[in-house]
Amino acid sequence: MNLDLLKETFASFIRARGMDRHFRRLGVDMFRSSPTTKEVPQTVAQSLVSASQTDLSELLKNLGSRTDGLTEQEADAIRAEVGPNEVEHEKPLTWWVHLWHCYKNPFNLLLTVLAAVSYYTEDMKAAIVIGTMVVVSTLMRFVQESRSNTAADKLKEMVSNTATVIRHDIVADIAEEAQRYFDVTLHPKGAKRIELPIKKLVPGDIVQLSAGDMIPADLRLIAAKDLFISQAAMTGESLPVEKFAEHRGVDASNPLELDNLCFMGTNVVSGSATAVVLTTGKRTYFGALAERVTATDRTPTAFQSGVNKVSWLLIRFMLVMTPIVFFINGFTKGDWVEAFLFGLSIAVGLTPEMLPMIVTSTLAKGAVALSRKKVIVKRLDAIQNFGAMDVLCTDKTGTLTQDKIFLERHTGILGEPNDEVLQYAYLNSYYQTGLKNLLDVAVLEHAELQREMAIASAYRKVDEIPFDFQRRRMSVVVSEREDHHELICKGAVEEIVSICTHARNNGEIVPFTPELLAEIKRTTASLNSEGLRVVAVAAKDLPPTKETYSVADESDLVLIGYIAFLDPPKESTEPALAALRAHGVTVKILTGDNELVTAKICREVGLEVEGMLLGSHVEKMSDEELSVAVETTTVFAKLSPTHKERIVRVLHDKGHVVGFMGDGINDAPALRAADIGISVDTAVDIAKEAADLILLEKSLMVLEEGVLEGRKTFANMLKYIKMTASSNFGNVFSVLVASAFLPFLPMLPLHLLVQNLLYDVSQISIPFDNVDKEFLEKPQRWNPGEIGRFMVFFGPISSIFDISTFALMWYIFGANSPDHQTLFQSGWFIEGLLSQTLIVHMIRTKRIPFIQSRASWPLMGMTLIIMCIGIILPMSPLASYFKLQALPLSYFPWLLAILIAYGALIQLMKKWYTNRYGWQ
After folding, report:
1. Dmax (CA) of the chain
2. CB–CB of 759/833 below 8 Å?
3. DSSP label at residue 810
4. What does the mean pLDDT of the chain come to?
5. Which of 433, 541, 673, 748 is the most exposed place for a label (fewest CB within 10 A)?
6. Going by DSSP bridges, is the β-strand pair 586-590/635-637 parallel, antiparallel, or unpaired?
7. Rounded to two decimals, what is the model's pTM?
8. HEC string of 473-508?
9. If pLDDT is split at 50, 70 and 90, which confidence band does 535 have?
C-alpha cells in the first residue's frame, strides 16, 4: 500500500479540521515525506489482514487468550515479552541524548565556535570563560528539563486514558475443578471487568468499547452493535464507518478497508463492541506508520515561532554589528588580532545563551504551579495560549451548572404527573449500554424507582439502537412476555415528536392533531422556561418476529410524556464569570441544549445574553455572516458537533485566541480546532486526547486561576527577552561610540565575557518573579515586533550613561591613555554590570521599582549577589588575573549618581513609552 497515495487522499481533510495537530503532539507529521520509506511494512498489513480472516476461536488460541480474557498473570508475562502499549517515539530519551538536545541550540553552537576560535588564537582565558558559559547553560537546561519531564510524566499519569478490559477470573476455574472432582458446588465470580491504563494492554486482552472511547490498540471485533468508528485520523473519511464482528468476505490487501478491524488512534462515535487486542505499541498499524513518517523537526507552535523570531532577530543584529565593531577597532587601533577577539566578545555578549533554559524552566514552573490549581498541562507551550486566551467557549452542563442533574418531574404530554413515563424512562436507561450520560444516571438514581427496579428484572433486553448526535435520541427493545416486543425511545423533544403519530393522554391513545401539537409545544416550553431540561419518552408495541432492530424501526411511535431534569447553577459560577470578564476573557456558551433553559441559567449566573443563535440558524449562515454574528452573540444553542467546531474556527479566523472547554465526544472536533482545548479528567477518552489542558475540577473558577497562572508564566518569559534584547543593544551601541574615539579598547574581550556570564546568572531566578496585577488583567500575546521596538527604544538609553562613565574615567580620573586603560576598563566593567543588573528591576515592571513593585526574593537576592561580585572583583586579589584594578573610593559616589540618574530617566521614558505604545 503506497503511503503517498494515502497522504494525497486525506491530507487536505485533516489539515482543514486541525487533526494534524493530534499527530504532531505524538511526534508524527503525516504530511512530511520520508526520504527513506514510503510504505507501511508489509508484514504489519499482512498480519492484520490474516487476523481479520482467521476463525475467531483459532485466533484466540493463537493469541493464547479466551473469550473471557487473560488472567493477570498471563497478561504480565506477555507484557514482559512485548513491552508497554506505546509507540516507539514515546519512550523517554536516554540521558546522553537529552544532554545533546539541550546543547544543540543555535546559541550554544555559536559560543562553541567562538570558544574554539579563542583557543586557536591562544586566548585561553576567553576560551575558558566562553566554555564555562556553554557548560553552565547546557547543564542548567538539562536539569530543568529533566525535572520538567519528570513532573509532566507524573501529571499525565493522573489523566491517562484507560480501557475496559475483561479479565479471566482464576477463581472460576478453581470452582469448576472443585465441582468436577469433589462434587462441591461453589459460586464462581466469572469474568471481571477492570479499567486499565491503555499502555498496559497486551495482545490477547479482551476489551469493551462504547461511545467516546479511543481505540487503544489494533483490534479484531468479537461482537458489535451499531458500532461506528471515526477513522478520519487514519483515512480522512469524513463520515464514521460502521464496523461488524463477522468478516464480510471483503478481499482486500489494505487493512483499513476491512470492517471487522479497528485501529489504534481512531475512536468510537456510537454503539458498543467487544474486541480482542491483536497488536500493541509500535507493532500496530498506527505505530508502524508513525515510525516511518516521524519527522525530525516538528512544525513549531505560535509560541515557538515567536521565540525563534526573537532569537534570529538578535542573531541578525549580531551578524551586522560584530563586523562593524571589528573593522572600527582594527582601523582605529591597528591591532587586528585584538580587534578580532573583541569582535568575538561582542558576538558572545549579544547571544542570549540562557534563553532556552529560561523558557524551559519558566514553562515547567508554570505547569507545576497549574497542577497545584488542579490544572494538568499536557503540552507546555499551551501555557502561553492559556494566558493569551481572550474568548472562552464552553458548554453549559457541568460548567455553569452543577455536575449533578436531578430528576425533578415526570409528566404526561400536557404536564400532569405521570408514573408510567417514569417506568418507560427507567427501562430505557437501565438497558442501554452505549454512552450513559448524566440524564441516565439521574433516572437510575431517582428515589422513587425501587418499584421500577423490580419491574426491570421482569424484562428481557432484545436489542438497542444507540444514541447519535444527528438523531439525538436512543432506543431499547425489551420483552416482558414473549408474545410481543416494546420499543422505548427517549431523546430531544423535537426529535421524538417527529417520529410519533399518536400520544397517550389520560390513558387513551389519541392521534396527533395541530391543536395537540401546539399544546405539546406550549407544555415543553413552559417546563424549559423554568430552567428544566426536558426529555421526551415514546414507545410502541411490535410483534416478536425479529431480534435485530435499526433506526428505520423508530417510526409511528406513541408519545408517553416527559421527564424533566433540574440542573442547578454552581455557586462558584457567578464570581468566576465576573473574574474572567475582569481579566478580559469573553465567555460564550456553545450547547446542544434548549435555548430557553440555557437563557434562564445564564440569567441566574449573571451572564448577560447579548445575542442568541440556534444550530439551525448557524447552518444557514455563510462564513462571512457567521463571522459577524459571533462577535455579538453570547449563547449558541441546539448545536451539533460540527456547529461547535465551525464557530470556534470562525472566532479564530477573526483574530481571537479561542479556548474551548468540553468533555463529551461531541466536543472533540471543537477541542481540536481551538487554540487551547480544555477538558476534564472525567471526560470521554477522545475529549481528553484532543485537549491541551485537563482540569481536575470542572469549574470556571479553576479555569480563571489557570488563566492567571498562564499570564504570569508568559510575563516572566517576556521579561527576560526584553531585558536581554535592550541591554545587549545598549552595550553594543556604547562599544561603537567608544571604539570610534578611544585610543584603546573600552573593555577587553575577557571583561565582556565575564560581565555577560555574571549578568546571565543573575537572571536564572526570573521564572520565580512576581508579576504586577495590571499585567494579569488582559490577555497577553506574543508580539516579536514589539520586542524589536522595545530593544531599539530602551537600549540606547543605557548608552547615555555608559558614555557618561567614559567621560568620568577620561576627565575626572585621568584614564585617558593606553597606560591607564586598565583603570578605564575597570570603571566601565563595574558600571556596565550594575546598570545591566539594575535594568532587570527597571524593565520587569512599568511601575516604580522597589517602591510600587518589588521583585521576588530569589530575584532580589540573585541580583544583589551579582552586583556585590561585580564591585568586589576589581578590588580582590583576582583582579590582576582578570586584568582589572582597584578603583579609588571617590569613584563610587559618582557611580551611585550615574545609577540613580539612569533609573530616573528609564522611569520617565517608561511612562512616555507606555502612553505611546502600551506596556505588554
Report:
1. 116
2. yes
3. I
4. 81
5. 541
6. parallel
7. 0.69
8. EEEEEEECCCCCEEEEEEEEHHHHHHCEEEEEECCE
9. very high
Report residue 740 as a C-alpha cell.
570610534
The residue type of 909 is M
CB contact at 8 A, 713 and 384: yes
What residues have CB less than 8 Å from 202, skipping those under 6 apart? 70, 75, 78, 79, 82, 85, 277, 280
| 264: its cell numbers | 489504534
**Cell numbers that stand for 69 in this block:** 480474557
For residues 218 and 52, the answer to whether their CB atoms sit within 8 Å is: no
Instruction: Output the CA torsion sign for 305, 306, 311, 317.
Output: positive
Q: d(Cα 905, Cα 804) in Å, to the nearest integer?
A: 14
Q: Which three cell numbers stand for residue 358?
A: 529560561
Question: What tens digit of pLDDT does each residue of 443-498 get?
Answer: 888 746 555 556 667 889 998 888 777 788 999 999 987 888 999 999 999 999 99
**Cell of residue 401, nine digits:** 451548572
480, 470 Cβ separation under 8 angstroms:
no
Contacts of 789 (CB under 8 A, 6+ apart): 917
DSSP E strand stretches across 483-601? 485-492, 500-505, 508-511, 532-542, 557-566, 586-590
Of 198-212, 244-258, 663-677, 688-702, which one has max mean pLDDT? 198-212
660 forms bridges with which residues in the sheet? 393, 677
* Residue of 782, 762, 626 whose CA lies nearest to 710: 782
Share of the chain above pLDDT 70, in %: 84
Enumerate the active-site residues.
395
Q: Are strands 375-377 and 693-695 parallel, antiparallel or unpaired?
A: antiparallel
Interatomic CA distance for residues 573 and 400, integer angstroms? 6
Residues 63/66/72/78 CA torsion (nearest 10 deg) = 0
Q: What is the 3-state secondary structure (H, E, C) of 393-423?
A: EECCCCCCECCCCEEEEEECCCCCECHHHHH
φ, ψ of residue 69 in degrees (nearest 5)? 90, 180
